[in-house]
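User: I'll paste a sequence; please echo it back and then give the predicted structure.

Assistant: Echoing your sequence first, then the prediction.
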Amino acid sequence: MGLSAQQAAQAMQQIAATQNMTTSVQSAVAAITSQQQFIINSFKGQIYISNQLDVQDTPVYDTITYAAGATLNQQNSLFFSNVGAASGKTLAQTNMDQPTKLDAPEAFSVFGIRLGISEDMLRIDLQTLLNSWVYEFDLGQKWYQRANIRHFASGWGISGFTTKTSESVYTNGWPSITAMHGLAVKLVIANQMSFKGFLTGAASQVLNSSGAGMIMTDEMVGLYARGVQ
């Protein structure tokens, strides 16, 4: 029994709809596979993603606060060390729970490092800081980043004109993700690997007692892999 013209047209529409759906599913699978491969590559193949880890584009950060008149040195500039409940720090200051390590099972693929400085820091203190100090980032016992503080542009903070002093403009690197310091070669913090960031290059610096002290935030930008809850 032959099909009528209308039935034939409906059959063709159903076939076309099925083909379109198949194409859409294939495209979605390809996109997911590509994303999974990007994640796996970001962790150098050491971390298996499926059903084991939840991976998100969110930072790991820590903050150190210095009062006016305080002395800055290498020992008290250790980031990612004074964290957890005992530190008294708020979530605005750090999102780490244990010193120099991520909770298990967690890992982090570092795409960039931002070093942010409080915008109300006294100008002379800031100039001395920039001229005197180097920031270093270590994995285990080996350093992987070491350069003058200026190198680690944060891409955040105040940018605009001010009347607070005779200076006409303040910037802390343009407040844009494109202005932050990015890594051409990603660093992978594997599960339970120790890491630290700190200032070095000078013996010490005494902040002006008439200033506002200094708040410095060290932020790692990248992919944060955590256990599936």
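The radius of gyration is 25 Å. Residues 48-227 form one domain.
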